[in-house]
Write a structure and sequence with these properties.
The structure holds two protein chains of two kinds. By secondary structure, chain A is mainly α. Chain A has helices at 14-17, 20-35, 40-57, 61-85, 101-126, 130-139, 144-173, 182-212, 229-250, and strands spanning 92-94, 97-99. Chain A has two domains: 14-138 and 228-250, no CATH class; 143-212. Chain A has nine helices and two strands. In chain A, β1 and β2 form a beta hairpin. Chain B has a single domain, classed as Arp2/3 complex 21 kDa subunit ARPC3 (Orthogonal Bundle). In chain B, α1 crosses α4 (77-92), α3 crosses α4 (77-92) and α3 crosses α6 (130-155). Chain B is globular, with a radius of gyration of 18 Å. Chain B has seven helices and two strands. Classes of the chains: A mainly alpha, B mainly alpha. Chains A and B meet through α2, α4, α5, α7 and α8 of A and α2, β1, α4 and α7 of B.
Chain lengths: 262, 211
């Protein structure tokens, strides 16, 4: 699994050229509005908006598909539970369990919203270099300490994934198989402990190196943000779409008077 | 367990962010420069450990290990969990961005409670298995607390989620057992190899006795 979400941030496209601060702010507002939608047709409309945005960034689909797979795994229980546990009348029964269409509708709604949000998140963080995105967050008043720690952690994640793969290879070459038994759990506990010790010792070496090069708690960057008119135009466009989506949801434009699929 | 976007209601999301800000401010007070690498390392380990799956029958369960983070970092564990949750949401949609607050309170709170339980070991006479037992209990309690908060978040988001809240709680029972064993084993290993890495470690001082 690779976590270099900014692998395609060098592509030339309208979204990649967008000022990261304004991009994060506008698309962030869009994300929060989508999270709170309650009607399915509006959620599907917002999904189309997200698909269009991702299409503009030219990020290949297989890259984004990874995140969608994660969402499916997360929401699978909801698909199984909500139709059978929805309070109210059941439409019919399957092997004794009451099945309600509203439950299925709710599960589909949740899934649509989650996929929309994950596509938009990929558009945000996949269209700029990650450290630039984090510095953009800093200009948006995110605490400096937090941003620094995020960047350190981001760097360490790749280091540790390598470390984990190396240790996994070593364990497998000694005949270790991952099963649900005490031996496995014991071994995993020792594995995590060994990973921790190696990591801490590595980080104290890295930290000493940084201190010796003059680190006093601030990461200086040469990144300068410049907002042009086009960035604001894109922001206004996104905000208008967000507002339209929100309004359509609140006034229930697409809900018929009778109780139906939506 | 993390929760995804699009499920919880607006007040719950707001409470999550509010709670995160409050707890973060309280636990990150006067953070020293030296602590930044340590916290980042733990956050990265938490991130990576969450990806390890143990196959159980037809499904698999992934490690959470927020109790372990609490046992090692003490109060700064909340910051480490927060970093892990943020990066999981940004980098590949594990959890979700709107529920970063709720996930932080859920997992970070569990880490802090685990640390609290871990510190209670000082009241007992030091023994061979003391760290292992308290590590196991801390690990289990860390995950249980997360389960309770998750169930509460679902519960307060609407009555259509009550059954799912119950399922979420029940799903934490096997996780509880697994975390207890893994954290107990890890703590035993650390006690032998690098006891100073565990939070609240009291360095034994030996009196230089004159012969």
């Amino acid at each position: 699994m690779s976590f270099d979400i900014d692998r395609f941030s060098h592509i030339e496209s309208s979204v990649q050229r967008w000022d990261p601060r304004i991009k994060i702010l506008s698309l962030g507002i869009f994300i929060f509005v989508v999270a709170l939608l309650k009607t399915l047709p509006v959620a599907v409309a917002s999904l189309f908006i997200a698909i269009i945005i991702i299409k503009i960034t030219n990020i290949p689909f297989h890259f984004v598909a990874n995140s969608i797979k994660v969402i499916i795994v997360f929401l699978a229980p909801f698909f199984f539970m909500l139709p059978f546990s929805y309070p109210g009348e059941a439409a019919f029964h399957i092997i004794g369990l009451p099945f309600a269409w509203e439950g299925l509708r709710l599960a589909i709604l949740i899934f649509t919203k989650a996929v929309t949000i994950v596509l938009t998140t990929n558009a945000i963080f996949g269209s700029s270099r990650f450290d630039i995105s984090m510095i953009a967050l800093q200009s948006l008043k995110c605490p400096k300490l937090l941003v620094q720690m995020i960047l350190f952690t981001y760097r360490y994640i790749f280091v540790f994934m390598d470390e984990v793969r190396r240790m996994e290879k070593a364990m497998r070459s000694k005949g270790f198989v991952m099963k649900a038994n005490m031996n496995t759990l014991h071994t995993m506990g020792n594995f995590v402990g060994a990973l921790l010790i190696r990591s801490f010792e590595r980080t104290s070496r890295v930290y000493s190196a940084m201190l010796s090069k003059g680190y006093v708690g601030e990461l200086h960057s040469m990144v300068r943000f410049e907002a042009h008119g086009k960035d604001f135009v894109k922001a206004v466009l996104v905000l208008m779409l967000t507002f339209a989506v929100l309004a359509a949801d609140l006034i229930r434009v697409f809900t018929p008077a009778i109780k139906g699929w939506y | 367990m993390h929760i995804a976007d699009g499920i919880l209601s607006a007040p719950v999301l707001a409470a999550g962010f509010g709670g995160t800000v409050v707890i973060a401010a309280a636990t990150m007070r006067k953070m020293d420069l030296d602590e930044i690498p340590k916290v980042s390392v733990m956050a990265a380990v938490f991130f990576v450990a969450n990806l390890i799956h143990i196959p159980i029958g037809p499904t698999s369960i992934h490690f959470i290990l927020n109790g372990l983070v609490g046992v090692i970092l003490g109060p700064r564990a909340f910051a480490a969990i927060m970093l892990g949750v943020i990066l999981q949401a940004f980098l590949f949609g594990f959890g979700g961005v709107t529920v970063i607050g709720v996930n932080c309170v859920m997992l970070g709170g569990g880490a802090l409670i685990a640390y609290f339980i871990w510190q209670m070991r000082h009241r007992f006479p030091s023994g061979d298995r003391l760290e292992m037992v308290f590590g196991a209990i801390a690990g289990a309690v860390g995950v249980s607390f997360s389960g309770v908060i998750l169930a509460a978040a679902l519960f307060t988001s609407g009555d259509e989620f009550w059954a799912t809240a119950g399922y979420a709680l029940a799903a934490h029972v096997p996780a509880l057992i697994i975390e207890a064993i893994v954290v107990g084993a890890c703590v035993t290993f650390l006690k032998k190899a690098r006891p100073d890495m565990l939070a609240g470690h009291v360095q034994k001082t030996y009196n230089k006795s004159v012969a």
